[in-house]
Write a sequence for this structure.
């Protein structure tokens, strides 16, 4: 029998891995977008675990809407990335520094 | 240790390992493939939690469409040269320590004292005739019908925004309206009168 706390610890671990990926990565923005996806999957696992253990389907419905929003976010993010690459010739995180205060 | 627990640990092991491999891999295409493996493990865990519809959606929509879109962009942009040149920043050990501290703290909070088996007992499995899709559809088309329609509109907006962003400064290959030409058009530009001489009249 797998308890709820094991699911929650798993999803928090995945969440932290995604967070570290955002902090650590300087190579390209595509990896940053993928880390956001990882964080969203961790959050969805959390929702589904609570939905299963509490016997309420509303959690799964929330996950459905999160997946919809994440898919549209990825589509627009990759379009912006294509524009960025066209303008600067690189998508390294260090190149995007024109928004200085 | 029961069978269900063994399956859970196998899939969570692969979930964590492939996520770590994803964030530490230099090659962006390999990172996408590791993320696909992580999504498959996540879908397996969701099936273990009796969320079959969402697990299938995760594989069909995410692995089938979104990850392929990622791969498409990576291959189209040809970023492999810039990826090799760039390196990780120097604060890596510090950040890893901070992450491990966060995981330890969350494990303390989420441990078996608060969310263990004696607090949240495992619910009984559904019977054979239970359909996850039917239950979700009953909610989607009754209570959540307005957010459901909004999600559809959101996807439409995402399509339009993505296409508009990519085609913004591209005047050569795109067919578009010229408003001034349309307003200034005269009748003689559109209608051309051709005098036709009918062949049977000519013979008479």
């Amino acid at each position: 029998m797998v308890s709820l706390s094991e699911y929650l610890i798993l999803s928090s671990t995945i969440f932290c891995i995604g967070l570290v990926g955002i902090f650590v990565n300087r190579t390209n923005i595509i990896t940053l977008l993928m880390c956001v996806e990882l964080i969203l999957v961790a959050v969805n696992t959390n929702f589904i675990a609570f939905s299963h253990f509490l016997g309420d389907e509303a959690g799964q419905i929330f996950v459905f809407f999160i997946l919809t929003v994440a898919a549209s976010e990825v589509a627009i993010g990759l379009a912006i990335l294509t524009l960025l690459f066209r303008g600067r010739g690189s998508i390294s995180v260090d190149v995007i520094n024109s928004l200085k205060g | 240790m029961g069978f269900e627990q063994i399956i859970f640990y196998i899939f969570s092991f692969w979930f964590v390992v492939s996520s770590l491999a994803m964030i530490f891999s230099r090659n962006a295409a390999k990172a996408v493939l590791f993320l696909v493996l992580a999504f498959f493990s996540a879908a397996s865990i969701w099936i273990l939690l009796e969320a079959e519809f969402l697990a299938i959606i995760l594989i069909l929509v995410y692995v089938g469409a979104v990850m392929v879109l990622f791969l498409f962009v990576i291959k189209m942009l040809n970023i492999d040269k810039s990826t090799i040149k760039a390196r990780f920043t120097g604060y890596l050990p510090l950040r890893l320590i901070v992450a491990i501290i966060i995981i330890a703290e969350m494990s303390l909070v989420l441990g078996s004292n608060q969310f263990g088996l004696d607090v949240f007992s495992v619910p009984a499995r559904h019977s054979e005739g239970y359909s996850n899709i039917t239950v979700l559809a009953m909610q989607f088309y009754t209570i959540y019908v307005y957010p459901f329609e909004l999600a559809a509109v959101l996807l439409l907006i995402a399509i339009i925004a993505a296409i508009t962003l990519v085609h913004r400064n591209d005047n050569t290959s795109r067919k578009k309206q010229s408003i001034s030409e349309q307003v200034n058009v005269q009748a003689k530009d559109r209608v051309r009168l051709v005098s036709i001489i009918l062949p049977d009249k000519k013979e008479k």
